[in-house]
Specification:
Layout: E1 24-25, E2 27-28, E3 33-35, E4 39-41, E5 47-52, E6 61-66, E7 73-76, E8 89-92, E9 98-101, E10 107-110, E11 120-124, E12 130-134, E13 145-146, E14 154-155, E15 161-163, E16 170-171, E17 173-178, E18 181-194, E19 196-203, E20 206-210, E21 234-238, E22 241-246, E23 255-259, E24 265-271, E25 276-283, E26 298-300, E27 308-310, E28 314-316, H1 319-323, E29 331-333, E30 343-348, E31 351-352, E32 359-362, H2 367-376, E33 380-384, E34 395-399, E35 405-407, E36 417-422, E37 444-446, H3 453-481, H4 491-497, E38 506-510, E39 513-519, E40 525-530, H5 539-550, E41 560-566, E42 569-575, H6 582-586, H7 589-592, H8 597-617, E43 632-634, E44 640-642, H9 647-650, H10 672-677, H11 682-698, H12 714-723, H13 742-755, H14 766-774, H15 792-797, H16 815-823
Parallel strand pairs: 1-4, 26-35
Antiparallel strand pairs: 2-11, 3-8, 4-5, 5-6, 6-7, 8-9, 9-10, 11-12, 12-13, 14-23, 15-16, 15-22, 17-18, 18-19, 19-20, 21-22, 23-24, 24-25, 26-27, 28-29, 30-36, 30-37, 31-35, 32-34, 33-34, 33-36, 38-39, 39-40, 40-42, 41-42, 43-44
Helix pairs in contact: 8-11, 8-14, 11-13
The structure holds 2-acetamido-2-deoxy-beta-D-glucopyranose (8 copies).
One 2-acetamido-2-deoxy-beta-D-glucopyranose (NAG) binds at residues 84-85, 87, 103-104.
Length: 829
């Protein structure tokens, strides 16, 4: 350490800045200065303070950074007032004011601190705190000024957040405007304290994330770590009131919490050897972190899909929006509260408590009294014990809407809330959507507020009835909820089973990767789908997704037996289907005869039921997005089983697959709105199903369909026949007409045409499809023109002409058509 190598100058009046000082010092005394290019460093060389330009900016700021990683700026003095050139100076006055001066000694920024008669000295501590101390005082911990009182976008260990006990200033983080501009941006992260404190990340005035209220031990909406070193925040109380928090300073761990310009909070630790910052956690990190993600009166849970569920006793305000995964309008009560005439409470376990918008807190009331208190006021909609520590009392009551509730796995949160419901809603059978909720509350409490004898008897009867019913439902729920963790196979096992992924074992090449046949050492035959490496999912997400998909069980779906994860490799292990896929059967002359009409009809019904289950009956709504005959497998008894469902989820939303930038899907089966605009929905699956129905009926492929008289696809051909009232001609000509149930065939074609209609909204839902196919008496609407109804050759030859030659169908002597065919080639679509 070099003492006093800075040259003393007199800031006040003399301006002869000609002297040069050493590059780095550890402190500054009055009338010394550092200029741009010089720095102060902390004693152990951890931090450095000096001038810098952020990002691509040319302007200069005074800031503090890590000496090992100078690009990480933890504090900026003149956030709003950049220096225009490199002639800035930092100096300390005798009165303990820190001044930042520009090239003409104008004060650009000042610490606004002062202490007359002190012996001030500016020091940068190893904590990253820039402080002015009074050397006359024995207590060096009491600073005249400290940068920790003026946080920027970074919270360092030892730095308070909340209220500073001595100065009463609020300490919060504010993001930079951009990586080039440290002036305060739109995001802030602060302790809000209206009764019960919580941490809130906001963008302007709107909340982005909320930690949940202080529960006596922690904020349960914040990430928790097994390693205490990152998770031992110190909370400071004033009597019962939490006023601030900080992370303890620990020599051996260099860590920081940064709110970046995009509004994302990251906790980082420095790997000292590699000089690399590791992200320990990030907020927001998943959909449920976002404030009010699921709208009002709903619960967000990352372990179920979709993440949003209405609270029990509530249903979506707009089912239509909800179906489109737009949760913003939230949920409303199925039936109004009865107030004094019989309301009860439903205990919901393991949650982040609703936001404290309209609430009352009484810290001296027991939870039992809280219940009674809540019932007294008709507008009280829920109550909870805000504190989870043993022996503590407290009563928190909510009024109005319940906002931003999150459900955790039980081990993560010990916090419960009691939701007020009319007694009628406390039945299990009640409530759409909410009855899907996976958690069966352990206990429901009834409180009868009307004390008439009759009411008591009625409620008693109801309770008995409900308990009987509940036991039954509970059992079913658990059967089907059974948390079976799907087996994880080692890649060695799979390699051995597939003869080291031998070419000879390849069963097919699906959109998401090749499928191999395999045999486990026990003799069981399996099909192994080796996913192409474009899945961006990490191990945890992949496992979650696979476990969700494994829960989809239906006789018309291929069963998933397990998965395999090794490095980047992701594989799915399915039951093996002896008879391979439907397309191989249907388009092969030697096997197609096995599929007689009744069998084909059963196959159509089976596929439709499987798809209905995916769309509506399972707890996950799955849109297949790549339904085609090669994805329908046949078992020994020729029962159809849909495969490859759920893969679109593993490959994530709109992401392209493989190297091509195509949407997931196969031409010939894709609905126009999906093929052209990439918009998919249940109705795009219905379109694909319609193509499959028509292919099964005709025994012909839509894509490769050709007809001597026109250049339409199979769909177009069916449409022409429909309009000519000759639609039964579509049925596979290999069938003896006497062996075809003609009304059934007619109905099937009709349903097929309804499914492939051009406009998604005209197409039926899967439940209608199953109904219409299976019911002779069903009255079917007239189909509209199918999607892609254009003659393929015409598109090429006559840009303007899209008229179809209905009248010419089947008139083979028409020479124009024949000559057209000779000069055009079919265009692959
Ligand atoms: C500097 O580091 C040494 C060893 O790492 C430690 O013993 C000492 O307490 C540190 N000094 C300060 C001021 O942090
Ligand atoms: C000081 O900086 C300003 C720009 O901010 C410039 O116009 C001026 O010439 C500079 N003065 C000196 C003495 O360098
Ligand atoms: C220090 O404070 C005294 C008393 O307020 C004032 O007279 C003097 O001008 C100040 N000096 C400086 C350098 O600011
Ligand atoms: C500092 O961190 C180290 C490493 O995690 C740990 O062993 C030690 O107990 C911590 N010290 C304090 C004072 O928390
Ligand atoms: C910071 O911002 C970028 C986007 O600019 C984002 O990708 C990153 O994950 C953010 N979060 C953290 C904690 O760095
Ligand atoms: C959700 O609840 C809040 C608070 O009661 C209310 O201000 C807001 O309008 C509600 N939003 C909707 C979509 O109902
Ligand atoms: C709660 O109880 C404590 C101690 O028993 C008492 O000091 C305090 O005033 C009470 N608070 C309220 C709001 O009644
Ligand atoms: C019920 O509680 C609300 C909110 O605290 C309050 O405004 C209202 O006056 C109360 N009503 C009764 C009848 O106590």
């Amino acid at each position: 350490m070099n003492f006093c190598q800075s040259v003393t100058i007199f800031v006040t009046f003399s301006h002869f800045w000609t002297v040069i000082s050493a590059l780095s010092n550890t402190f500054l005394v009055p009338n010394q200065f550092i200029k741009d290019g010089q720095t102060l460093v902390s004693p152990n060389q951890t931090f450095e303070v000096g001038f810098f330009s952020p990002g691509t900016s040319q302007t200069r700021y005074l800031g503090i950074w890590y000496k090992t990683t100078p690009s990480v700026i933890v504090w900026v003095a003149n956030r709003d007032h950049p220096l225009q050139d490199s002639q800035g100076l930092l100096t300390l006055t005798k009165n303990a004011t820190l001044l930042l001066l520009d090239n003409s000694t104008n004060v650009i920024w000042s610490s606004i601190s002062s202490s007359f008669g002190a012996n001030p000295e500016l020091q940068l501590l190893d904590t990253g705190n820039l402080v002015i101390i009074d050397k006359k005082k024995s207590n060096r911990e009491s600073y005249i000024w400290q940068s920790f009182d003026f946080p920027g976008d970074t919270r360092l260990p030892g730095m308070l957040m909340g209220e500073s006990s001595d100065t009463n200033i609020e300490l919060s983080l504010t993001s930079w405007k951009s990586s080039d501009d440290p002036s305060p941006g739109e995001f802030s992260y602060r302790v809000e304290n209206y009764g019960l404190p919580h941490l809130v990340l906001s963008s302007g005035n709107s909340k982005v994330f909320r930690s949940g209220p202080w529960n006596g031990i922690r904020f349960n909406g914040l990430p928790m770590f097994p390693n205490k070193a990152f998770d031992n925040t110190v909370f400071v109380f004033d009597k019962f009131r939490l006023v601030s928090l900080s992370d303890p300073f620990n020599e051996s761990i260099v860590s920081r919490l940064t709110l970046n310009e995009s509004g994302s909070i990251g906790r980082f630790i420095l790997d000292e050897k590699k000089k690399e910052w590791k992200l320990v956690y990030m907020i927001p990190n998943n959909p449920c972190d976002y404030y009010g993600q699921c709208g009002n009166n709903s619960v967000c849970n990352t372990n179920v899909s979709p993440n949003c569920q209405c609270l029990k006793g509530f249903s979506p305000k707009s089912q239509q929006e909800w179906d489109l995964l737009d949760w913003s309008s939230g949920c409303r009560r199925n039936s109004p509260l009865q107030c004094k005439n019989g309301d009860g409470f439903l205990k919901v376990l393991g949650i982040k408590l609703p936001d404290l918008l309209l609430f009352q807190l009484n810290v001296n009331m027991s939870i039992k009294d809280c219940e009674t208190e809540c019932l007294k006021n008709c507008s009280c909609v829920a109550y909870a014990d805000p504190f989870v520590n043993e022996g503590s009392n407290g009563c928190l009551m909510w009024y109005g809407d319940l906002v931003d509730i999150r459900e955790f796995s039980a081990e993560k949160s010990e916090q419960n809330v009691y939701i007020r419901l009319p007694v009628s809603e406390l039945d299990y059978a009640g409530g759409r959507g909410s009855s899907e909720k996976k958690k069966v509350p352990s206990k429901v409490i009834f409180i009868v507020t009307g004390f008439g004898l009759l009411a008591s008897i009625l409620v008693f009867a109801f309770v008995v009835h409900w308990n009987v019913k509940r036991n039954k439902t509970t059992k079913n729920k658990y059967d089907d909820d059974h948390e079976l963790e799907l087996p994880l196979f080692s890649s060695e096992t799979i390699a051995a089973a597939t003869n080291n992924f031998s070419q000879a074992n390849i069963l097919g090449q699906g959109g998401f990767g090749p499928v191999y046949k395999g045999k486990l050492s026990g003799g069981q035959e399996i099909a192994v789908k080796r996913l192409s490496k474009t899945s961006r999912q990490g191990v945890v997400e992949f496992k979650t997704e696979v476990n969700l998909i494994a829960k989809l069980q239906h006789r018309n779906l291929v069963r998933l037996l397990g998965s395999c994860i090794q490095g980047e490799e992701r594989m799915l292990i399915y039951e093996f289907m002896q008879n391979k896929s439907l397309d191989r059967f249907l388009y092969d002359a030697s096997t197609k005869t096995l599929l007689n009409w009744p069998r084909r009809f059963e196959i159509m019904m089976g596929i439709s039921r499987g798809l209905l289950y995916l769309h509506q009956d399972s707890r996950l709504k799955i849109i297949h997005r790549d339904l085609k005959t090669s994805n329908i497998l046949l078992d020994n008894d020729l029962n159809p089983k849909i495969s490859d469902f759920g893969l679109a989820r593993i490959f994530g939303g709109e992401q392209p697959f493989e190297e091509t930038k195509r949407v997931i899907g196969t031409f010939g089966y894709m609905a126009p709105e999906y093929a052209i605009d990439g918009r998919f929905s249940e109705k795009s699956d219905v379109f694909s199903l319609g193509v499959i129905l028509l292919e099964i009926i005709s025994g012909k492929e839509n894509r490769n369909f050709s007809h001597p008289d026109h250049h339409h696809t199979l769909l177009g051909h069916a449409w022409l026949l429909w309009n000519d009232d000759r639609v039964l001609e579509l049925v596979d000509e290999n069938f003896k007409p006497s062996l075809v149930d003609q009304p059934q065939a007619l109905r099937s074609i009709h349903v097929g045409l309804l499914c492939v209609q051009k406009l998604a909204e005209d197409r039926p839902t899967m439940s209608s499809v199953v109904f219409m196919l299976g019911n002779e008496g069903a009255i079917l609407p007239r189909p509209e023109e199918p999607g892609f109804f254009m003659e393929r050759s015409r598109i090429r030859c006559e840009a303007s002409g899209s008229t179809f030659k209905r009248s010419k169908l089947g008139t083979r002597e028409d020479s124009t058509t024949d000559s057209l065919m000779t000069i055009t080639r079919l265009v692959g679509r």
